[in-house]
TrEMBL record:
It comes from Gimesia aquarii. InterPro entries: AraC_E-bd (IPR010499), DNA-bd_dom_put_sf (IPR009061), GyrI-like (IPR029442), MerR-type_HTH_dom (IPR000551), MerR_fam (IPR047057), Reg_factor_effector_dom_sf (IPR011256). This is HTH-type transcriptional regulator CueR. GO terms for molecular function: DNA binding; DNA-binding transcription factor activity. Residues 1-71 form the HTH merR-type domain. SUPFAM superfamilies: Probable bacterial effector-binding domain, Putative DNA-binding domain. Gene3D superfamilies: 1.10.1660.10, Regulatory factor, effector binding domain (3.20.80.10). It comes from the Bacteria. Keywords: DNA-binding.
Length: 268
């Protein structure tokens, strides 16, 4: 018989793993010295170790391996196990693809926000914005209620979302409890529902200002952009837009001092 160290070298399994497999009852030593506690393995155990290693490579659980070792001797006999394992792995792959896509969204969002911060002048600018396909939920209430609207849109359109969330403001004044706004997301495609509008949002010439900081401080930036509009003699088209380039993250809330919001007002 082989000592546990010798058996480890033969099978490529660490001593720690062999002890664990012993505890789990899937690869028991042929003999354990009662005085020293040393484990010894017969040569016949080498094949068992090889089978366990192969099954672990196929991501079988220890419970599955125990069942296979105790009841089957030929691969033809474990066909159902193999089919079930293939199905489990396929499901995991779908889950991992979804997770990978979610991570891509976070990475792209943070990269774009960082780039916007690095390039920002935090001065009022004039620019043209393109027409885009959007999904929107018209709401009345507190501005903070928009979170539920964004959540609904995120669940509905998911991978078809292709830009940052934003609000369309239909009021020309600040309202504390009865604001008229629409939570929106740019999408590649999607179908409307009774509660969700899917349509093209018309682009045009606009004045734009990046606001860095908490949402409660947006008033200062609105004052800055409205003074610019008055100086230029422009007429504002309603609704105006707030685009949330960086806000509470998908994982962490983040620091409100680092939030980045773009105010856009289409002008005539």
């Amino acid at each position: 018989m082989f000592s546990i160290g010798e058996f480890s070298k033969i099978t490529g399994l660490t001593v720690k793993t062999l002890r664990f497999y012993h505890e789990q009852g899937i690869l028991e030593p042929s003999y354990v010295d009662e005085q020293t506690g040393y484990r010894y393995y017969a040569e016949s155990k080498i094949e068992t170790a090889r089978v366990i290693t192969q099954l672990r490579k196929l991501d079988f659980t220890l419970a599955d391996i125990s069942g296979i070792l105790g009841n089957y001797e030929d691969e033809a006999d474990i066909l159902d196990y193999l089919k079930q394992q293939k199905q489990r792995i396929s499901e995991k792959m779908r889950e991992y693809r979804a997770i990978s896509g979610f991570l891509d969204q976070i990475i792209i969002k943070e990269r774009e926000a960082r780039e916007a911060m690095n390039n920002a002048t935090y001065e009022v600018e004039e620019k043209s914005v393109d027409s885009i396909l959007i999904a929107g939920i018209r709401m009345r209430g507190k501005y903070s209620d928009c979170a539920s609207g964004f959540g609904t849109l995120g669940r509905k359109f998911n991978r078809h979302i292709c830009g940052e969330p934003f609000l369309l403001h239909y009021d020309t004044e600040f309202k504390e409890d009865d604001a008229d706004f629409e939570a929106c997301m740019p999408i590649r495609k999607g179908a409307r529902t009774d509660a969700i509008s899917v349509r093209e949002l018309t682009g045009g010439r606009c004045v734009s200002l990046l606001h860095k900081g908490p949402y409660d401080d947006l008033g200062d930036s609105y004052g800055k952009i409205l003074r610019y509009v008055k100086e230029k003699g422009y007429e504002i088209e309603v609704p105006t837009r707030e685009i949330y380039l960086k806000g509470p993250g998908m994982i962490l809330k983040g620091n409100p001092k680092q939030y980045l919001t773009e105010i856009q007002m289409l002008i005539k």
